[in-house]
């Protein structure tokens, strides 16, 4: 069945355009009313005022069910510790090995959130009729716990991930929660398992953090779930690759669409990823690393795989620009790495920085034909993808409708701007290069 778009609001008229916003506000009022006044539930992952009118649903009464409360956590520690894989081993690269413990919290519509638990890592129990198995009522976040070169454990801007997860849960009818309580639970798990799984003699390593919420309601009806489960795990990943030499992208074709206005491309929900795997697999068989997702007849650029896409080019007038898709149509993810790159660029690159020329930072809708034209006219400077998984990955080639767009990399295997962004972010994440005390690095006190 084709998606039904939410009609954009028309000024001065009454429409049904805010059904989703209204539904979210009512759901938040029932599950976490403390969040109604703090921020718009459908806005971006900071408290920037929304660009569209928002529902004005105020809580009529105080909460009658329990909200998520990290202070009530109940801890049961493992009696069968797991073995930490060796760096570079196939076991570590399998992305299947998790740390000793996990966080779990149960919710139902009558009592609200039960006391969360820290418990031994292991399987979860679900009814075959569970909502998440049938209706994609599942969302998650992707984060990393870093072992810094200064010996400390760090998270990178974790408050943004927790805020975004709240937005994602709201979009798919899962219960709301105070993001700061989720952050406390994540920190508790990291503090418990971090010292063993990221020992101090392995600086520069990380664990992947996967906070997840699923609808566990066993009712098979197509309706808002009445039961849900939140869990957080730490997973071993292979060391972060720099993707030097560049990644090759295959532009999506007319029969492919990752996200659409009025849909859920801006939320980190499982339904965004499963449908992309067929095209991704075919792209890899043809020698490409990922899909460059385009949208509409004008081939608007959205994302590179599951990462945000950036391009540096010169306008026809000679102005140097750093361009990425805007968030207005809600068809790209408000990535934490994306947001950080834009903030760093505005702070450091609007004037000359060392050997780097100042750039104009532009967030707007743009399409593949503009890149084709810039490449033909010698105005294309570089391009890169940015996200938690790929980090900052230079792009060397884009294949579009039978032709290859060769993307320059002035540093040999990376562009100059991608290189400087990568360096700044690594300094914050790993506690190096004078970035040990940067406000974006959230230090975790080890248990």
From TrEMBL:
Its cofactor is pyridoxal 5'-phosphate. It comes from the Eukaryota. GO terms for molecular function: branched-chain-amino-acid transaminase activity. It catalyses: L-leucine + 2-oxoglutarate = 4-methyl-2-oxopentanoate + L-glutamate; L-isoleucine + 2-oxoglutarate = (S)-3-methyl-2-oxopentanoate + L-glutamate; L-valine + 2-oxoglutarate = 3-methyl-2-oxobutanoate + L-glutamate. This is Branched-chain-amino-acid aminotransferase. Keywords: Amino-acid biosynthesis, Aminotransferase, Branched-chain amino acid biosynthesis, Pyridoxal phosphate, Transferase. It is an enzyme of class 2 (transferase). Residues 29-57 are annotated as: Disordered. The modification N6-(pyridoxal phosphate)lysine is found at residue 268. Pfam families: Aminotran_4 (PF01063). Belongs to the class-IV pyridoxal-phosphate-dependent aminotransferase family. It comes from Ampelomyces quisqualis. One of its GO terms (cellular component) is mitochondrion.
